[in-house]
Amino acid sequence: MKYTALTKPLHDYICATFPAEDDFLRRLKADGEAVGMPPIHIAPEQLAFVQTLLRGINARFVLEIGSLAGYSAIGMARALPEDGKVVCFEKEPTRAEFIRQKAEEAGIPHKIEVHAGDAKHLLENFRPEHEFDFVFIDAEKAGYVRYLELSLPLLRKGGMLCGDNTLAWGNVFDANSTDKTVQALRAFNHAISKHPELSGCLVPIGEGMTLAVKR
Ligand SMILES: C[S@@+](CC[C@H](N)C(=O)[O-])C[C@H]1O[C@@H](n2cnc3c(N)ncnc32)[C@H](O)[C@@H]1O
């Protein structure tokens, strides 16, 4: 087995060399926690990674499922052209409103559109005017396979889909796990690996990101 374990000095080096997080995003996290939101945003190096992917595929429209305080949404919006947009689905209305406020403060309200409610219900009736270039799934893990089914028809060919936390906190290998989250993430990874329209991989960054391109 050939790999380099991620140590704290290595992590610090990566984040310092390819910084994606500025004072605004650091303050956004602190402001979210101050109003009771959990610190479960993607990691800064994951944001740098996703921004690089978005730029690489010339993404204009991004669909995000699970947005919390808007850290990843605003971070992704920064990697889009001026006429690009991140469309967020966030279950909690207070979080949805928080994201709208932060998008204003960031000076990019035109690049963030927030829909409040359960993404599974909202997506069933969602008829966007354009196809998406990138789908980011980061809501409740039990819904991941359904989010894959609902969002894939909205993704353009050559577009990418990404799900977060897909190492299941180190337990994704365990086929006998009775933990529902582990089972859900295993089912998501399996669905992507076997999907006839997708080519994918699992990148061990942060808590793990499963990536796929639509063929
Ligand atoms: C891990 S956080 C998202 C973090 C965010 N992507 C970031 O990195 O900044 C998960 C979010 O998904 C939301 N969520 C959970 N279930 C949902 C559902 N069924 N529909 C929409 N949002 C949901 C939660 O309210 C929470 O804010």
Task: Tell me what you see in this structure.
By secondary structure, the chain is α/β, with parallel strands linked by helices. It has one domain (8-214): 3-Layer(aba) Sandwich (Rossmann fold), CATH 3.40.50.150. Helices cover 39% and strands 20% of the residues. The chain is built from 8 helices and 7 strands, in the order αααβαβαβαβαβαββ. It has a 7-stranded mixed β-sheet, with helices on both faces. The longest helix is centred in the C-terminal third of the chain and has 15 residues, at 180-194. The protein is globular, with a radius of gyration of 17 Å. It starts with 7 loop residues before the first helix and ends with a strand. The structure holds S-adenosylmethionine. S-adenosylmethionine is lined by residues 40-42, 66-68, 71-72, 89-92, 95, 118-120, 138-140, 143.
* Helix and strand composition category: alpha/beta
Strand arrangement, major sheet: 3-2-1-4-5-7-6
Structural shape: globular
Major sheet characteristics: 7 strands, mixed
How many individual β-strands?
7
CATH class: Alpha Beta
Order of helices and strands: HHHEHEHEHEHEHEE
Mean pLDDT: 98
Q: How much helical structure, as a percent, in the residues?
A: 25-40%
Spatial gap, N to C terminus = 30 Å
CATH H-level homologous superfamily name = Vaccinia Virus protein VP39
Q: Could you tell me the CATH topology label.
A: Rossmann fold
